[in-house]
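>> received
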Amino acid sequence: MKAIRVTNPGRYEDLALVDEPTPELGRRDVLIKVRACSLNFRDTIIAKGSYPGPLAHHVIPISDGAGDVVAVGSDVTRVTVGDRVTVNCSCDWVAGPNLAEYRSNSVGTTIDGMLAEFVRVEERAVIQLPDDFSYTDAAALPCAAVSAWSALHVAAPLSPGQTVLIQGSGGVSLFGLQIARMFGARVLALTSSEEKAQRLKAMGAAAVVNYRETPNWEDPILELTGGKGVDKVIEIGGGGTINHSIACTRAGGEIGLVGYVAGMAGSLRPITLQMRSVNLKPISIGPRISFEALLTGMQNTGTRPVIDSVYGFSQFKDALRHLESGNHFGKVVIDMEA
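>> returned
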């Protein structure tokens, strides 16, 4: 099979196209022919050698993908050959809290990922797709959509009428907007351009603040909430934005810390966090049951991912560059058969 391996992290040009045997299956393994996969911000830093987490030697990158089951191990019971499936990012995390041992079986980081013609995963990680979900749509979900779901359910479930703040127009943020609207919540958004602001409003954002024109964007967010602050924040900026987010979250509100696109370093102000009694939780994507609940919600409401662009397998480096540029609106997908 053809696959891409991270053989010399540092440059996209050093990602290696390899031809190797199709993986052999254990008793509870499933072999998937990958039809589509999608990129996340962490895929760019994995390729460049700056990913801060554990990484398998010469790993096949990309956690998100969808395809067809083409073979199963002797003891597999959850799926059969021919099923259309996607895969939870953490193969062992089915339900409950995230445990340290789950990190040793994480798709695209500690085990081989989706940027290959075939992928082998344990059956408990596999999720069957609704009939009317395309491979492109399904491939967009595992990391970004499940992270958004988890970030909106930090200490208490998302409820109708609550106010949610999203940052930017990448995959996690747009899924956050869509999920919040599925629940009947009000969404405030941050973005960098008027064009993106109009698109966010068309998707249901009640108001949008341009963070480039208004560096202290917590002030207008507070004004938009009558000085109270938002109920929930999907924090994707990290060190560059976290203190602004705390400042505009209501007392007792929640921040789901998903990413660090505005910087990994920073100085968190604990006194502000304590004085506002804000619940801050790092998000490590989510368990399989959250993914299944998300799929059910999307199916029942007719919600589908926002797809920015689709690249062919041979164009994967261009896809990474496009994602890194920040010019995307929604998910960047790779069609493995194009």
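>> Residues 146-282 form a domain with the Rossmann fold fold (CATH 3.40.50.720).
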